[in-house]
Write a sequence for this structure.
């Protein structure tokens, strides 16, 4: 896979899932490039002052992804490995539809759950319980489905009685536990994980990896170093 | 397979289908908006009442009594509150909508959702507050013995729709523009404040007519969605004015025309929205 030239990034498959017989593609990435334009002026005044030609000088163009083509099959675990700033998170966002590529095409099928960076889209002022329902519905579960799964989510997360506390009072680890618990229980076909597991303690990390292994979807995920023993290397 | 590619603006139908598929989540977002707004406050939802009632009090006492604007406007309190309710709906949808994408950046950067749901959720929470004020009007008019059960109540429907369509259209557009130019949020506040005084909420339309005369200036003053909406509300809900107050001719037709223009605007603004929403996650 070719990424921007100074900063190569590679895609590695988990040996265990490599042996899985070939399954349908759930993500097809076709010649995707992503360009970021960095603007240095963000207020109306500066925008007006630097309007037109001279405005170009206030812009800097940066290609985070260049001509990336690859496919991901259902049931496989894939890791993206690369230096900081090599475009791993950007690629995951493009796969998840959060960013549109500048050129090229991404096709995907099935339900996608994304755990990108810390936060996972919780609202700090709402309780864990309220956030579970909100988050699950964002990932496409109906209220009834969430209610049916609620006990499982709660016990998987190990949050216990804190579930009725506002999430702004959670520790980072608790936050991620709950977000991860919701994401895996929405039964996604594709689970995108970016760094979030890095803050969970070791026991929880192992639990998550076991859970990831146990379900029949494809799950590319991304980590800058190698914080997770055995996944995808 | 569903795809996304470079510069792909979704079609209008596709967007509507996608939003409908997320309606349950939309309802949750509205509840979250309402809940989190008054979280940790002892009075909670009562605050939604205190603000408009305070406004009413100020306008009633200061402008009605001290500046004696209430001369010539019977049942001045109901008159003012009716106008405030119409204006409140408009300004809350636009104000909330404009801030909605930036305010939900946490979600937008982490998961794909049809981005329209965020401005639409602001519409939902504004509608909730509107409903409360509307009930207050009905209760108050009933208590004062001037419940608006007259044929003119029909004006409520088009004026409500006009206010809703225009505010949603601008809320949608401004929410997207605000991502790239945060000044918009502050500009909108100022313009909304101006709009309150530029519509016949605390004074009457006939006062304006007296000053502007019957010419083009009056047409411009009258034929904007806020003024039309406010006038329609007064005509339908404020019994004190029936037979006394003066309204522009063909109010119904003006509302109808405004509504259709508003729908066209909404479609255009939505197209603009879909074109620039692909870059939201990276600009936030
Ligand atoms: N919204 C943005 N606007 C401008 N540039 C961006 C934006 N997001 C990312 N970039 C740039 O794109 C490049 C790739 O970023 P990305 O976050 O994908 O790296 P990464 O491989 O995930 O790094 P890390 O290992 O640190 O997580 C970086 O140089 C970054 O500066
Ligand atoms: Mg990253």
């Amino acid at each position: 896979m070719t990424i921007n030239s100074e900063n190569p990034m590679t895609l590695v498959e988990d040996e265990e899932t490599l042996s899985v017989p070939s399954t349908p593609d759930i993500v097809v990435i076709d010649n995707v490039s992503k360009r970021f334009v960095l603007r240095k002026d963000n207020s109306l005044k500066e925008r007006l002052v630097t309007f037109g030609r001279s405005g170009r000088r206030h812009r800097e163009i940066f290609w985070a992804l260049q001509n990336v083509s690859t496919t991901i099959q259902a049931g496989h675990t894939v890791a993206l490995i690369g230096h900081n700033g090599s475009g791993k998170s950007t690629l995951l966002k493009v796969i998840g539809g959060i960013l549109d590529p500048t050129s090229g095409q991404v096709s995907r099928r099935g339900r996608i759950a994304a755990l990108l960076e810390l936060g996972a889209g919780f609202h700090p002022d709402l309780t864990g319980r309220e956030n579970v329902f909100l988050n699950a519905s964002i990932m496409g579960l109906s209220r009834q489905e969430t209610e049916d799964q609620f006990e499982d989510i709660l016990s998987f997360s190990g949050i216990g009685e804190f579930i009725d506390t506002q999430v702004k009072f959670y520790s980072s680890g608790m936050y991620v536990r709950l977000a991860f618990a919701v994401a895996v229980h929405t039964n996604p076909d594709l689970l995108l994980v970016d760094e979030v597991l890095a803050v969970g303690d070791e026991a929880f990390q192992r639990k998550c990896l076991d859970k990831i292994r146990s379900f029949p979807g494809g799950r590319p995920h991304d980590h800058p170093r190698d914080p997770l023993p055995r996944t995808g290397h | 397979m569903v795809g996304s590619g470079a510069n792909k603006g979704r079609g209008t139908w596709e967007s509507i289908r996608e939003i409908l598929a997320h309606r349950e989540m939309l309802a949750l977002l509205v509840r979250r908006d309402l809940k989190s707004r008054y979280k940790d406050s002892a009075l909670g939802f009562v605050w939604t009442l205190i603000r408009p009632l305070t406004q009413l009090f100020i306008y009633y006492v200061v402008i009605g009594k001290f500046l004696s604007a209430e001369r010539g406007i019977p049942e001045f309190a109901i008159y003012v509150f009716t106008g405030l309710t119409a204006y409140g709906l408009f300004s809350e949808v636009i104000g909330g909508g404009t801030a909605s994408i930036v305010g939900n950046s946490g979600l937008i950067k982490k998961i794909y959702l049809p981005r329209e749901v965020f401005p639409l959720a602001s519409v939902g929470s504004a509608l909730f507050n509107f409903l409360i004020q509307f009930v207050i009007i009905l209760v108050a008019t009933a208590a004062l013995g001037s419940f608006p059960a007259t044929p003119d109540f029909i004006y409520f429907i088009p004026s409500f729709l006009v206010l809703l369509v225009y505010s949603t259209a601008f809320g949608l557009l401004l929410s997207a523009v605000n991502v790239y130019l945060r000044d918009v949020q502050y500009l909108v506040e100022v313009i909304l404040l101006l709009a309150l005084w530029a519509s016949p909420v605390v004074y009457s339309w006939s006062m304006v007519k007296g000053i502007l005369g019957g010419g083009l200036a009056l047409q411009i003053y009258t034929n904007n969605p806020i003024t039309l909406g406010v006038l329609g509300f007064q005509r339908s809900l404020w019994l004190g004015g029936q037979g006394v107050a003066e309204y522009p001719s063909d109010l119904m037709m003006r509302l109808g025309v405004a509504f259709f223009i508003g729908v066209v605007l909404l479609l255009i603004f939505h197209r603009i929205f879909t074109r620039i929403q692909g870059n939201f996650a990276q600009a936030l």
